[in-house]
Amino acid sequence: MEAANLSVAATGVALPLGSEACSIGPSPGGVVGSTPGGAALPGREPPFSVFTVLVVTLLVLLIAATFLWNLLVLVTILRVRAFHRVPHNLVASTAVSDVLVAALVMPLSLVSELSAGRRWRLGRSLCHVWISFDVLCCTASIWNVAAIALDRYWTITRHLQYTLRARRRASALMIALTWALSALIALAPLLFGWGEAYDARRQRCQVSQEPSYAVFSTCGAFYLPLGVVLFVYWRIYKAAKFRFGRRRRRAVLPLPATVQVKEAPQEAEMVFAARRPVVAFQMSGDSWREQKEKRAAVMVGILIGVFVLCWIPFFLAELISPLCACSLPPIWKSIFLWLGYSNSFFNPLIYTAFNKNYNNALKSLFSKQR
């Protein structure tokens, strides 16, 4: 997936900070180092400004945190037997894709951004490997989010029919489809000759610039899963609203004309009745299943919200650019690119924040190591 240069001016010298990675669609050429008069400085790397050093430091920290946090989630799932079941295999699949993004995609993207003129000096073969892993891992990460949202939706709305056996089959099928579709999108240019990633004359490595491939890849990698997650969240919201309305209707109950205060041992319940009226108001605490479904709904909502905020600016730019033959300023393209990368950092944080089992497992893991 291609992003443009993030140009930082320092004493009249422009430093490119753009990447070809995680970009699907055409973009303009990079910015090269120049003098104030506009003359290029061949063979000379531009100096690093304080702002550039700060930005690079933050990006390196983002890469390290994304890799370590997702790796920690994977280790926790592998070491805790209770996690060797659905839906943790979906979380593990997401963590695998995010670990690969941090290990294989983001570092080479940063190296490419720091090179003058975004020149690729690592050869044609490594260029194809990098671009393929870029599209594969980013697409798999996005589709894994959609798979988790679908699993939570079926758990909430069809908890009687969606048994553990059905969840295992559904999750295995979703994981297989996720990686198969991601591989198809990533390898389509190589398998079907759909454009060339490496330009030896200009020393550039970028995703295929074919407009048809840009539309195909952006729709398959983002807009289709975006439609899935938005539909799922709307259905979860409707189901929650229906259940809340049903509980409110049940709260009005006919009771004898006496004052009652009733307490259940397992579920807090208070009933208030006047001496003469026949109608009383009943307020009951949530059952264990309702609390679990509520946490799942909140987790899905935050997961989808962060996913949309991280990726929609980048993919809007990547879809609009080839259709209107226009381009955003380079700095905004790079900001959108790394904002999309950051979704791989937020995913494990959201899982662990809304799952007490993960928190307890992480605590026990660190306590045993001590």
From TrEMBL:
Keyword Zinc in the entry? The reply is no
* Recorded GO CC terms: plasma membrane
Recorded GO terms, molecular function? G protein-coupled serotonin receptor activity
User: Which BP terms in the Gene Ontology apply to this protein?
Assistant: adenylate cyclase-activating adrenergic receptor signaling pathway; positive regulation of MAPK cascade
| Record membrane topology | Multi-pass membrane protein
Entry keyword set: Cell membrane, Disulfide bond, G-protein coupled receptor, Glycoprotein, Membrane, Receptor, Transducer, Transmembrane, Transmembrane helix
Annotated compartments:
Cell membrane
Q: Which SUPFAM superfamilies match?
A: Family A G protein-coupled receptor-like
Signal peptide range equals: none
The regions listed as transmembrane in this protein's record are 50-78, 90-110, 130-150, 171-194, 214-237, 296-315, 335-354
Highest taxon of the source? Eukaryota
Asked whether the keyword Membrane is assigned, the reply is: yes
Domain G-protein coupled receptors family 1 profile span(s) in chain numbering = 69-351
PANTHER family per UniProt: 5-HYDROXYTRYPTAMINE RECEPTOR 5A (PTHR24248:SF202), ADRENERGIC RECEPTOR-RELATED G-PROTEIN COUPLED RECEPTOR (PTHR24248)
* Protein family: Belongs to the G-protein coupled receptor 1 family.
Protein name per Swiss-Prot or TrEMBL = 5-hydroxytryptamine receptor 5B
Which source organism?
Answer: Leptonychotes weddellii (Weddell seal)
